[in-house]
Amino acid sequence: MKVLVPVKRVIDYNVKVRVKPDQTGVDLANVKMSMNPFDEISVEEAVRMKEAGTATEVVIVSIGPKQAQETIRTALAMGGDRGILINTDETVEPLAVAKILAKVVAEESPDLVLLGKQAIDDDSNQTGQMLAALLDWPQGTFAYKIEKDGDALTVTREVDGGLQTVKLATPAIVTVDLRLNEPRYASLPNIMKAKKKPIDEKAPGDYGVDISPRLSVVKVTEPPVREAGEKVEDVATLVSKLKSAGAI
Amino acid sequence: MAFDAEIRAALIEQVRRFVTEKCVPIEAQVGDEDEVPQAVVDEMKNLGLFGIAVPEEYGGLALDMETEALVAFELGQTSPAFRSVAGTNIGIGSQALVLFGTDAQKEKWLPGIASGDLIASFALTEPEAGSDAGSLTTKAIRDGDHYVLNGTKRYITNANKADLFTVMARTDVDTPGPKGVSAFVVERDTPGVSVGVPEKKMGQQGAHICDVIFEDARVPAENIIGKEGEGFKVAMSVLDKGRLHISAVATGVSKRLIREMVNYALERKQFGTAIMNHQMIQAMIADSQAETYAAECMIMDAARRRDAGEDVTLLASSTKLFATEACGRVADRAVQVFGGAGYVSDYGIERFYRDVRIFRLYEGTSQIQQIIIARELAKAAKAGRL
Ligand SMILES: Cc1cc2nc3c(=O)[nH]c(=O)nc-3n(C[C@H](O)[C@H](O)[C@H](O)COP(=O)(O)OP(=O)(O)OC[C@H]3O[C@@H](n4cnc5c(N)ncnc54)[C@H](O)[C@@H]3O)c2cc1C
Ligand SMILES: Cc1cc2nc3c(=O)[nH]c(=O)nc-3n(C[C@H](O)[C@H](O)[C@H](O)COP(=O)(O)OP(=O)(O)OC[C@H]3O[C@@H](n4cnc5c(N)ncnc54)[C@H](O)[C@@H]3O)c2cc1C
């Protein structure tokens, strides 16, 4: 089984983001960037499949600026076999990403595309689903467990308040959730070896995909500042305050 | 080998991530329990940390000194006990083999050292021979195709976990001083080798030191590293490199403590304002920063020169003297900036204060570095090189 794993370069999850003064977005200047954490989980899963002998090749693809190559290298250091960078400095919306990925799929013919359920920068949670629609492939979203079952895949999904298990014919789209696995640390030797793995460089135009945005961001705002607490005289007052606030 | 900048950045980033995510959260636990959890040791093995200074053909990373120093800056930014787990394999425990070992010796031991499956220690110090290491009295007497070792080594880091030791012992009992000393690889399971109980010590709980005792321990003659009589030279070459590594670890701790000081000083208010606004606090933090930066520059310069093949004995001693003494001052100031909290264990600052004290003692005390610096200068002057 050949696995295609798209990865996105996003603001590192440890960074405290600041909204730009003009509220058009967040400040990206000198901010640490890393692989979207959900994508680390999908890379880990693909690499485990390869180690278990169920996957034959793990191809990493990223759409983004030149530096997204570092993100691909990280995935290659974790165990991916080769990379494809689709280089663009433009903002690429989920639909455009899905359209490009559909073309990559046509070229690469993977049996499985393993995506993060969402990217932590825009929290769109759309790309996997859109790709499934464009390809007319079955999808298993929010995967908690993935098992190969003959030519099919059994995917246990996280749903509100429980789990749901679905069976997908391959080729298929699976998006991964947080609890699927704990991604490994790429070892230092593998980081060095990753430098020698091939990365193909392309542009959206090579796939004939129009990536011009269809959405415009109206406004980005900081979350409300947490308000100061209140000190009360005694337990009775506390209880009555909590009751009137509907907290108990 | 010159390192690719992108690879170097990725390596450093990964070590930083390991330190931040796996070590920093359990510093207090390691201090209290005097043990680095096996799971973390295993992660270090998987990461490849044990092999960073072993050649690639033996499964290591063969980092140049400059990159090793950058890694050590990162490893220093948590309790130094974590670094110590892999420290002897990276440094003093492996380098005699790397620098002077025969192909057969390298083949036999370096792959295990690189993976962390073998722990290697360095045994020079004795009860009666510390700073004056050249006066050591552990004997290695040739008997057929073996050397028979007798004597006691003291304060040997990781001895309780070691599978092999680099041992300096006197092969020529009639030649006093450094010239009669040879270096050997001694395997832990050699009959006649025993290890004492770990010492209770001031800091770096989680890292252990013990006596290593040799009682008629028969070591194969092919385990000699270098030639007979070269053991002291071997030990000193190993220490030149070790001193740069230790300097970088100490400077890593300084960087961490500066961060702690600044963050605390911005939060803590006295006299109606954050103490960061008090100029005497600023002075302590500024001095710490300037000294730490100076140490960093010294380390990078000495490391690059070593990579270029220069003899760095003078530079390594100068660097170790300055970097470790600076670290001691920084740790003292950190306690001061934290006030009472600096003395109370919950804040972790007093633990760092204790941990860093050893940097000024081992791999040559500060006084020994001064002696080496003066000796090297005199030597250079006499040779018309100063
Ligand atoms: C935690 C720890 C880990 C260690 N790990 C190792 C290890 O892995 N392998 C190993 O072989 N050893 C190890 N050591 C030993 C360490 O290297 C020695 O403790 C150190 O070299 C000092 O020797 P000493 O303790 O005998 O002190 P001494 O040599 O007795 O020194 C006592 C004092 O006298 C000073 N002094 C000595 N000679 C002179 C002089 N000529 N002029 C001026 N002052 C002088 C010293 O600077 C010091 O201040 C370790 C020690 C510790 C505490
Ligand atoms: C073991 C121990 C025993 C103690 N016992 C007692 C006790 O029995 N009774 C009791 O009442 N207290 C006791 N204390 C508290 C002790 O007196 C305080 O910790 C000490 O006065 C410092 O106050 P602080 O810890 O709040 O530090 P802070 O006042 O927060 O000081 C932090 C740092 O800021 C500096 N600083 C503060 N203001 C200025 C300024 N204006 N300009 C320049 N620098 C400034 C300080 O010098 C220090 O370096 C004890 C503390 C300890 C650790």
UniProtKB/TrEMBL annotation, chain A:
Keyword annotations of the record: Electron transport, Transport
InterPro entries membership: ET-Flavoprotein_bsu_CS (IPR000049), ETF_a/b_N (IPR014730), ETF_b (IPR012255), ETF_beta_N (IPR033948), Rossmann-like_a/b/a_fold (IPR014729)
Similarity section: Belongs to the ETF beta-subunit/FixA family.
Protein name: Electron transfer flavoprotein, beta subunit
GO process terms (BP): carboxylic acid catabolic process
Membrane-spanning ranges: none
Annotated organism of origin: hydrothermal vent metagenome
Cellular component terms per the entry's GO annotation: mitochondrion
One annotated GO molecular function: electron transfer activity
Positions in coiled-coil regions: none
Domain Electron transfer flavoprotein alpha/beta-subunit N-terminal: 23-211
From TrEMBL, chain B:
Cofactors that this protein relies on: FAD
Coiled coil segments of this chain: none
GO biological process, one term: branched-chain amino acid catabolic process
Domain Acyl-CoA oxidase/dehydrogenase middle: start-end pairs: 121-216
Domain Acyl-CoA dehydrogenase/oxidase N-terminal as annotated: residue spans: 10-117
One Gene Ontology MF term: short-chain fatty acyl-CoA dehydrogenase activity
Classification via SUPFAM superfamilies: Acyl-CoA dehydrogenase C-terminal domain-like, Acyl-CoA dehydrogenase NM domain-like
Annotated keywords: Branched-chain amino acid catabolism, FAD, Flavoprotein, Oxidoreductase
Enzyme class: oxidoreductase
Sequence ranges assigned to domain Acyl-CoA dehydrogenase/oxidase C-terminal in this UniProt record: 229-377
Sequence similarity: Belongs to the acyl-CoA dehydrogenase family.
Protein's recorded name: Butyryl-CoA dehydrogenase
